[in-house]
Amino acid sequence: MREEKNKDRRQFDWVLLFLVLFLAVFGLVLLYSTSAYNGRVKFHDPAYYFKKQLFATLLGLAGLYLVSRLDYHWLAKFSPGLYLMSLGLSLAVLFVGEEINGSKRWLSLGPLSFQPAEFAKVAVILLLSWYVSQRARKTVGLLFMVKVMLLILPIVGLVGTNNLSTAIIILGIGVLTIFVSNPKYVQFVGIGGAGIAFVAVFLSLESYRLERLAIWKNPEAYEKGFQTIQGLYAIGSGGIFGRGLGSSMQKLGFVPEAQNDMIFSIICEELGLTGAVLLMLVFGLLLWRLMVLATHAPDLLGSLICGGIMGHMAMQVILNIAVVTNTIPNTGITLPFVSYGGTSVLFLLGEMGLALSVSRREKR
């Protein structure tokens, strides 16, 4: 019994855990620095956002520990039920969801609010990993690719009605899962074309989405381009080493809701190019560890779970930084572990727990 415990402890991926804890603590520090002004003005409490995020982070760390102790094979068996639950919650958002800043994405549970789209990402990663691993010898061909995409289209459609960016990430997770399990690459040209067509249709359904494209091309010509312009001012004014932690000027009402999607611009202003590059390096190390886990996983299921988590993290980090630097139109994507969002950090830590569960059984 003692030998099994020592072996389990030795195989646990401490590097991944350290990177996750570093990002969680770093995110809390930067969130407090960024949100103190808004918290004081709106709620007469500079620590308002920090305290809510701290509660969600502690809850997420408890979830990380519990999930990491469970066998991911056992968790995968419940993936169809979790996926159906995510469909039900996403459907409920359309009818009884709470609208905040013009978007209906939240379900209110008393004093707490919950964003089902974040739960949907985890449910899709588990479902696709389980589904593909059950059909390991039938992952070649267009029919298999179509089946996988049809499997996630209902949740993509429900989430995409109010949250196009998250719908794109879920689609990306599906494409990545197929790519990892399929030895052929030509078919992905067709998937890429279908994905572009899907995004084009969703863009055309709502006028505000087309407006975002126009704002991206010329933010100075639109009132709603104010946030983008102020974010770029923050990035530029930070220089190489920044103004210093807590010394941002743009967070004082110039960048609206700076603690949310645009927090990377405040990081650039306070910590400069050096701090921004170091943060991106930590994210890069996290993705590297997830890739290592996917490579050394004991079976296809574990490999696909780690690959799906890695893809989710990579897409979200790249899209957020691209939006803040105005490389792509504004999509409303948060920066993992750093942006304000209790539901987001809770399920991100849950995903890390899944990856650590795989690490306990990986091949050495």
Automatic annotation (TrEMBL):
Q: What EC number(s) does its UniProt record assign? A: 2.4.99.28
According to its record, what are the GO cellular component terms?
Answer: cell division site; plasma membrane
Keywords per UniProt: Cell cycle, Cell division, Cell shape, Glycosyltransferase, Membrane, Peptidoglycan synthesis, Transferase, Transmembrane, Transmembrane helix
Task: Quote the subcellular location field of this record.
Answer: Membrane
Q: What is the reaction catalyzed? A: [GlcNAc-(1->4)-Mur2Ac(oyl-L-Ala-gamma-D-Glu-L-Lys-D-Ala-D-Ala)](n)-di-trans,octa-cis-undecaprenyl diphosphate + beta-D-GlcNAc-(1->4)-Mur2Ac(oyl-L-Ala-gamma-D-Glu-L-Lys-D-Ala-D-Ala)-di-trans,octa-cis-undecaprenyl diphosphate = [GlcNAc-(1->4)-Mur2Ac(oyl-L-Ala-gamma-D-Glu-L-Lys-D-Ala-D-Ala)](n+1)-di-trans,octa-cis-undecaprenyl diphosphate + di-trans,octa-cis-undecaprenyl diphosphate + H(+)
Q: What Gene Ontology molecular-function terms does this entry list?
A: lipid-linked peptidoglycan transporter activity; peptidoglycan glycosyltransferase activity
Keyword Metal-binding in the entry? The reply is: no
Q: Does the keyword Cell division apply?
A: yes
- Transmembrane region(s): 12-33, 53-70, 82-100, 112-132, 139-158, 164-181, 188-205, 262-288, 300-325, 337-358
Q: Name one Pfam family in it.
A: FTSW_RODA_SPOVE
Membrane topology term: Multi-pass membrane protein
The Gene Ontology biological process terms listed for this entry are: cell division; peptidoglycan biosynthetic process; regulation of cell shape
According to its UniProt entry, the function of this protein is described as: Peptidoglycan polymerase that is essential for cell division.
The family note in this entry says: Belongs to the SEDS family. FtsW subfamily.
Please state what the protein is called. Answer: Probable peptidoglycan glycosyltransferase FtsW
Give the source lineage, highest ranks first: Bacteria, Bacillati, Bacillota, Clostridia, Lachnospirales
